Fold:
Amino acid sequence: MTNSSADARVFAAGSLDAVAAALVAAGFRVVAPVRQGDLTRLTLWQPGQAIDLEHFTVNSAKEFLLPATETIQRYDIDGNDFTPVEVAPDATKTVLLGIRPCDAASLTLMDTVFNWDFEDVFYNTRRQACIVVPLVCTRADESCFCTSVGLGPDSSRNADAMLMFAEGGKKLILSPVTEKGRTLAASAGAAAQAAPDKTCDVPVRFNVQAVTAWLADAFDSPAWAELSAGCLSCGACAYACGSCHCFDIQDESAAGGAVRYRNWDACCMALFTKHTSGHNPRSASQARWRQRVMHKFSYIPQRFNLLGCTGCGRCTRLCPAGMTVAETCERIDAICQSTPSVK
Amino acid sequence: MSLIEAIRADASQLLQEGHVKMVLGYRARYDRRLPLLITQADQVTALVYDEACWQNLPTYIRKSEVRSAMPVAIVCRPEGIRSLLVLASEAQIAPDAVRVLAVVGSEYRGAMDLAAAAELIKDLPPAPVAPDVAAKLDELAAMSANDRAAFWRDALAACTRCYACRASCPVCYCQNCVVERNTPQIVSTTAAPHGNFAWNIVRAFHQAGRCTLCGACQAACPQDLPLMLLNAWIERQVREEFAFISGSGLNEPPFIGSWSPNDDDKFIR
Structure:
């Protein structure tokens, strides 16, 4: 269990909205979970909105660092004159308030990919302007599997400050972890101490080392046909996922010229790998599902020594067909356990 | 025998006797109901059915893995049967390629071929429009065109262009969807108001006279967009202006794709 730091602040859980308002007054933009109709969404918080820490959000924090659509270039076109116009990346100081530890943990992979062979100025500018404040989870549901991928409900990975419930959920502790986190403390009241509430139990659902080991030789496994049977090739899982980062560049005409967008893309979609020649190496849905699972649990580990999944469970909650990396990993683990070891 | 025991018994028999090579039904995983595709009779024990099962399973016919396993048996409610009839009328499935395991309300009506399923739904009313949706349609009809456009721009703002709606819809079977044509890019793929408006409105128009109001698109949408409101708007127009109900018979001519010399409109003569 995480203990609160010496410079922690404690306030009534019902005052979180007031703390957010104080942050806005101090010049920060606040992103927080807000109930909208029948679902809860991480959104740009407006004073007057109630922050919802009870439900899991349908979206991850990813969209505030890598938006679903982002203008990355403009062009003025006048006859044959073609002038690129730079677009300044968004550097607004933003507090991600009350995201989950799994959301915060996924930033490790995002930071790595967007600085691997190219430094992505749009991602990096937003990232540097972000202050990450995950809420330690005191509740989990059957879709959560952070503990299966080396994390936990109180993981402080990438956190600038931690939010923790205390006194049975009646109070909240804001516990700074980094210098950036300390800049928030002034908006959260006087320094105080409290004992954090017990975190929730998240049972381990599969042995991720066994899954990664099996995947190393499993490209041609006949298991993929059954593992992928339900997939309908939409992008719901990839877009909800905090670790997925594929994108598509689109040029569109606009008044006076053109705009270049960077839009989310998803490897599960049928035409993701269609070449201009017309050939599509992943025309079968089982090839795409295999790719998705192997990217997260085999290729990313090989390349970066990280997992491409933080166990947030959004894919599980949102897939219309019930396709989830968690269930695929559970089934692979079962295959491993029922296959006699030859080593 | 309970409803699910009867479904399992028929599914098992159809597979064992080789009448079908695959059964499409539902399974349970915790609280959720999910599609299940089985090819062996001993797998029927995993089949479940209750009112929480919402997916329109004929959407799986788009998958080559399912087409190559035809004939298949599919657990269908009336809206799903109507979707199959639309697919048959558009020459997407041969009538003997599917058997229907028909559920009407909380009753299992047995395993039957598509012609018998068409008879079954003949006397059933089409899927009802929920009262709150019907009230909203009236409200939208009373708005000016500009106000209505603003309503839809805001209602569709949260769309991320994941296409779960398209994937869940049995009659969205185009291998090369209009949104993916890019020489030229006809429909913007950008998840911004102009792109979201274009995508959702274009898709709804393509479902005119084909949508059976099964609700799978809205249930699938991760952002809970009011897609059924859009579909119900068009369904109302099709029903009131053209007296047409989607998927009402085995050989119904397609709504958009056909013309009769007895058409009311005289301008075309």
Remarks:
- The mean pLDDT of chain A is 94.
